[in-house]
Amino acid sequence: MAASETSTHDPSSRPATRGPVVNDFSIQVATTNGSGSQSSNTVLLRALFQMGIPVSGKNLFPSNIAGLPTWYTIRASREGFVARKKEVDVLVAMNAETARDDVLALAPGAVAIYDQPLGLEALRDDLVLYAVPFDALVAPITKEPKLRKLLRNMAYVGVVARLFSVELAEVEAAIAKQFGAKAKARELNLAAARAGFEHAATLEKRDPYSVRRMDATRGRILVDGNSACALGALFAGVTVVTWYPITPSSSLVETLVGYLRKYRVGADGKATYAVVQAEDELAAMGMVLGAGWAGARAMTATAGPGVSLMSEFAGLAYFAEIPAVIFDVQRVGPSTGLPTRTAQGDVLSTAFLSHGDTQHVLLFPGSVEECFTMAVDAFDLAERLQTPIFVMTDLDLGMNVWMSDPFPYPERPMDRGKVLSREDLDRLGGFARYRDVDGDGIGWRTLPGTDHPKAAYFTRGTGHDESAAYSESPAVFERNMERLARKLETARSLVPAPERAGEGGARVGIIAYGSSAPAVAEARVQLARERGLETDALRVRGYPFSRAVHEFVEEHERVYVVEQNRDGQLAALLKLDLAPELVPRLRSIAHVHGLPLDARSVTDEILTLEAK
Amino acid sequence: METPAPPAGPRTNRIGLAVLDYRGGKTTLCAGCGHNAISERILEAFFELGVPPERVAKFSGIGCSSKSPAYFMSRSHAFNAVHGRMPSVATGTVLANRTLLALGVSGDGDTASIGIGQFVHLMRRNLPIVYVIEDNGVYGLTKGQFSATADVGSTLKTGVANDLPPIDTCALAVQLGATFVGRSFSGDKRQLSAMLQAAVAHRGTALLDVISPCVTFNDHEGSTKSYAYMKDHDTPLQELSFIPSFEDIRVEYDPGTTAEVTLHDGSRLRLRKLEEGYDPSDRARALARLMDASRKGEVLTGVLFADPTAPSFVDALGMVDAPLATLPEAQVRPPRTVLDEIVASLR
Predict the structure, then answer these.
(1) ipTM (interface pTM)
(2) How far apart are CA B306 and CA B324, in angstroms?
């Protein structure tokens, strides 16, 4: 893999930076998978965070256990921008295999810290180069070759710390947190970081980049979206979790299992949950439906290929009206695609997942905090609407570490939806499962085991009447489908409302969702500062679209829909939903290359399209 | 004082319900279909055991067999799932509410063809469920194609002979760890009734493969799943009688000719041996005997394997005794202090 494949950046497009640059640059670390680099990168990220500087980290990794090239980008941004930065300001070249390509891809004026034997100084004379003898630095720390390989990566953290004024004490604190109770690992890594720090004192500083303590991260947390979803599920009171391992969703369930074991086992040693690793995604989904039907809060987590397999069951759940929560941590498709790269490519297929007139409710968390809150919401919505709720996150949101405000404890009691008890049945004398008694398209259900002779009904994927009895009547079938459409209308007002940004008077609007939102927020600043183009923005958070989404399009002459797929999938959904005269206002900015979206690409494309 | 004699009503079971309370909708299957007889035996079994129908959850996939849960026990919740994937749905329900008695009804196509993946994993888990395969060797609803349990040489009505070896679902279940495995015949009322009652009393996966002739597509000469073929080839291993836990019947028996399996709830399945030396607690012997029967063209019926003591899936998961589905919020939503603790660890 060429290093240029980790960047959508054209090296010729950017002039060299002049003057000191404080708390506003990106560091890309090139290492090999399985070399301990993740620990080093986390330590550096955390040290910056502890200094109060807004940070973000993006792991660009291969589908491999060990040995293939991997890159990690750390961005410090005093303005708090957390999208991937297109430009690499500082390269740390630790991987001999990719070093040449990595260095050739840099823009003039960029910095490269590299392993001395690589001899990269011969390649470019327009960079600031720092050669570091990493092997020599770690040699005195240990004699074990395997450990030396790992410690080289911690040594780079020390070098970076000295060169860019990261406080050594914060690096040491981050190492202590990273290695916790593993005293030996902690001491070795401290020694390696200090060795790098000491060595870098001998380097002559020739670049403009540095960090300085700020106060922008106080009270905040660092967490990945999969953990946030897991925590949301924990506090939503999930009781049945079924899954089949698939990147990038596996850590969601694994993290959840850890929390469940810790917080949901009683003093008697008995669990208030069940977790099943199923034989495949079909079974995982079937188990969720069986559990949801019986009244449990049930979930699964998967990615595109798993969602495809769940298609048939998703249609059954829609038609038989069974609550379910499915986390889709999207990765690049079609097919197996790029399993370790990010995308928003399942939106359209999931909205209509399964044959017939199936439609689903989707939630789009745009931050790790929303991964938490929407996970909680999803379980309420699933039971309220008696239908599957798909929480559409992605690899960028799910597997990368993000800053966040602490998660809010759910204030509302759990909404268990319309369930009739034995006492209700005594009072009513009976019920019809699919009768729209409330006018919102949602019938009342009973749970199996309800001790009443009138409680039972027959759940089926075949045509059925209001009493759930088999029916092939054309009129009955149409009436039922119309009611299901009415239920989706109800969903419009129940899914999280979109969030607006901007003054509201702009002619240009931008719609984004999920992990595209941070790049759009930054692009709006770039457009205003660099070109004086004021924009309003709308972050869509649910499907079917709230009325407020329509209003936003009505209020703007041109609306750019920014997303990470090829075909403009959310734009397509909008076109189906909007009044026909509004459709020409939409302009799609849709790309998929597997890298998290950056602001500069969005800015450039909007400017190009605005010029037309 | 003279007590007036109660009006002669229908016989009721120990919870005061009549057979009528276990009935379902009118069958839409063909007259003479083996499945209808199985439906009768199922509802009778629950009636005889005095199981409240509300405690039963019925599951099925797709096919003629899978329609049948609509034709018995209307007072039980039912879930007619998608083709071949009923096991996962039933698994989810049992996890959500471990107090339910799960009954799965499937067919040979639904289980052995499209559903073989979920079937084998269900057998591994020992989920508490009675899983009945209504096995006729053909697809009925799509008008008579071979299924994966059709024997080599068995013919369709058109004369086409099956040339692929059948999947023996009982052998698979024995090998995979199912804890109660039996084969029966829809026409053998006595054997099937005893086996069904024992299966309901068993705590774990009870797999019953019931040969159930398809009168429309597979009951002709040349079929190995016809009534006539079963009459000639049915080879019962034992004569079964079931003694429910609530009936205190103690009869001496000769351990040389009779064996007893004591089930989880204290009920007993008595097996009068028709075949010397057959031991239903030995998986390897069961497999060997099944393969032997297949070679000889016998349809071996009876209890092939039983291990009533193995821990079930719900036991293994260490769940609370109450249904997970209806645990109160206080038990499933950790308090605010827990979130505070977790947030602090992420700082």
Answers:
(1) 0.97
(2) 29
